[in-house]
Design a protein that fits this description.
The structure is a homodimer.
Chain A: H1 6-17, H2 19-26, E1 35-36, E2 53-54, H3 57-62, E3 66-69, H4 77-86, E4 90-93, H5 96-113, E5 117-118, H6 129-136, E6 142-148, H7 151-163, H8 167-176, H9 185-188, H10 191-205, H11 224-232, E7 235-246, E8 251-262, E9 274-281, E10 285-292, H12 296-316, E11 338-339, E12 341-348, H13 353-363, E13 368-374, E14 380-387, E15 390-391, H14 392-404, E16 408-417
Parallel strand pairs in A: 1-2, 3-4, 4-5, 8-16
Antiparallel strand pairs in A: 6-7, 6-9, 7-8, 9-10, 11-15, 12-14, 12-16, 13-14
Helix pairs in contact in A: 1-12, 2-12, 4-5, 5-10, 7-8, 13-14
GO molecular function, one term (chains A, B): homoserine dehydrogenase activity
Function (chains A, B): Catalyzes the conversion of L-aspartate-beta-semialdehyde (L-Asa) to L-homoserine (L-Hse), the third step in the biosynthesis of threonine and methionine from aspartate.
Protein name (chains A, B): Homoserine dehydrogenase
Amino acid sequence: MLGCGTVGSQVVRLLGEHAADLQARAGARLELVGIAVRDTAGERAPWVPRELLTDDAAGLVARADVVVELVGGIEPARTLVLQALESGATVVTGNKALLAAHGPALHGAAARGGADLYYEAAVAGAVPVVYGLRESLAGDNVNAVLGIVNGTTNFILDEMATNGLSFDQAVALAQELGYAEADPSADVDGHDAAAKAAILASLAFHTRVSIDDVPVTGIRDVTAEQMAQAAESGHVIKLLAVARLNRDARGISVRVHPALLPATHPLAAVRGAFNAVVVEAESAGRLMFYGQGAGGAPTASAVLSDVVAAAGHKVHGGHAPRESTYAQLPVLGPESTAARTQVQIGLADEPGTLAAVAGIYGDNGVSIESVHQQRSDDGVARITIISHVSTEAALERTVAGLAEEPRVHEVISVTRVEGE
Amino acid sequence: MLGCGTVGSQVVRLLGEHAADLQARAGARLELVGIAVRDTAGERAPWVPRELLTDDAAGLVARADVVVELVGGIEPARTLVLQALESGATVVTGNKALLAAHGPALHGAAARGGADLYYEAAVAGAVPVVYGLRESLAGDNVNAVLGIVNGTTNFILDEMATNGLSFDQAVALAQELGYAEADPSADVDGHDAAAKAAILASLAFHTRVSIDDVPVTGIRDVTAEQMAQAAESGHVIKLLAVARLNRDARGISVRVHPALLPATHPLAAVRGAFNAVVVEAESAGRLMFYGQGAGGAPTASAVLSDVVAAAGHKVHGGHAPRESTYAQLPVLGPESTAARTQVQIGLADEPGTLAAVAGIYGDNGVSIESVHQQRSDDGVARITIISHVSTEAALERTVAGLAEEPRVHEVISVTRVEGE
């Protein structure tokens, strides 16, 4: 084992407590031969056998059949995982950043070494969505994946929606409860979700997708007022990872952004720090996988299921599903990416203004699904416009056009609409 | 392929339409070598190649690497599946009745033949809960499984709850829409759910559980009035398959019955003919798998994922997860099965009656969580009592005691309470 933090120490505990069960399932006794940590003298959970601690990670990798990488981040994890795979050791990792940035290199090393790479714990903790996409949907074609894959931001948005907290108040509460880091940017700016989106899209569409292919909008600009308005119109706002096949353009789009979802959508009911991934498949229809997306024990559960599978293959033969990239679909740009938006603008409350706004939509080829106007006392009307499906590029041009129109005082918000 | 009904004809269609995708994923071209049917001259979907039809099922089994059994029922499916497995052919089946009645014999034949047995399609259609329990939770210990595993009854109960239909009206609507058979008893009496409960419990607890181990109560006695009362108290009524580990008694309980669930429980939101299975695991916590539990294309998706896995193992080596029965836990009787109930009784509206009722609970060692009394004009009070967790046997004795108490006019209903 490489690393012994929150998840790693739970893996050590469960390997010991459930040794007999795990042996019965894997067909062999699982022996923990070493735990590589930076500081062998540091404080550890009481059940961590200190005699197994070492600071020689490379030496440990060289003598293990299965390497469980829970270091996180790119280096030294990348070098150690590559070393393990090239030497034929199975790697079980929960390292989404490494997979999303260097997936092809890892899979290439696995192929060269004849080794297996498992990463259920890298996406949505205990939620078995990697198994789901790699194996359960191997006989189907995926049209779209929509996921709540970051529990911290889901907790924050849920607190804003349910208890009316501001963004800053909700972040502070998440920090207090241990859901958010002191620097919450990896979560709230969507980078953690983007790494998971790249992994999910790679699996769903049999195509290599890197984190660099994933445009990201985080949740810093979501206001309590927007959340309340969403509720009034029967919606919720969730931070979604969205990957979608565009059959006409023969490509895929992958995005992370806050989105309005109808309150009746299965993802709308995902509360607190839970994760869930909806897969829309051609034959299966809509599937959802739901569970705890983080935390020591839930993530350790995913790690151990991979370890049991890895050990079972060492005993009985066989391999993990290999990287599947045969489809090689291009990742589409904004001109080919389908999208819908809700735009809120403030504009002069005078005749002809609405016609001008509608004209900007029409000039950009975007049709309008609904318009709601809210008058105020100060001569400024607030209008909420939901579009039909168009392209991301056309929607961006529309917003640019609105911003240039003199009678539009302000573009208050632009929010994606999903799930219908 | 054995059988070519609703699911089988979709499997044939998808094998043709997605041949290239399936080949890329399995590592070999999948060739449909024959389709055994009773009547080779009968009407078929236009895409079914008539030259592959045969009425010699045993002959077909003898020349196939993978046998897809979609005949259903016990015979001739049992004989053909045993023949296939003993000769070393992989079997992919959606036959829950066969598995729940003869699972040990099938797994035994697979072990003797060195063959693999796949059955994702046998439980909850497209919902990958067999994968989930066989593989994703291999590193965890399951405490309980609660499932809505019969779409027909969920549709009927949902119509009763949402649109106020009576049981008979809802059954008629389900028949009209093709969700229920002309004779709906296999669904409404819970036998279909019981077969799935046996399979889920076997997987979850690494123990052989047969359909004969599963006491069943169907939904015929659920009334529209009960549904409305459940809604008033913030609950729904669902037909649940429940399998639970009792650590103290070192055994498991498996049951199918209608149950009151809090409206906030994830299973409460499962509408229409959808299926969902909640797994409560020691480390992972609560997981849910949700999707379409029946229908040609969704079930075919599950069959094809198994076929791809089977073909992949033929090409690359390895095996399906073997039957795991090492835990050998006993299936507990009512004296050791934990349960909670809601009991509704009509009783004389006079002093001392409630004390007598409470006394009957106390005498049987059952503690009461809540009592609600509703007075009526005719001197008969209606009382709703929800118990704390007790044993099934003690709850049965309590109901028997209530029925014998002269001041109790009627035991109106007894409903299990789950999910808290």
